[in-house]
Amino acid sequence: MQVFYWVQIYSNAVSRLNLKLDHIETIASISWFLLCVNGIYGGIKKWFLILSHFYCVLNDIIFMVLGF
Length: 68
Fold this sequence. Notes:
The longest helix is centred in the middle third of the chain and has 65 residues. The protein is built from 1 helix and no strands. It is mainly α. The radius of gyration is 29 Å and the shape is rod-shaped.
């Protein structure tokens, strides 16, 4: 009877630990996804800034060459 009691406590602890591990994995995957989205968004924003800067420079060169 005593052995059964300890086995039950052990299995309860393991199931709780598994539940916590599942939560940790879910939180980790969500935060990883958010980091990826943030990285993609940051990359798009950086490229947009580079392209807009390039467009401004190109615009200035065209205006200088054409003399507008």
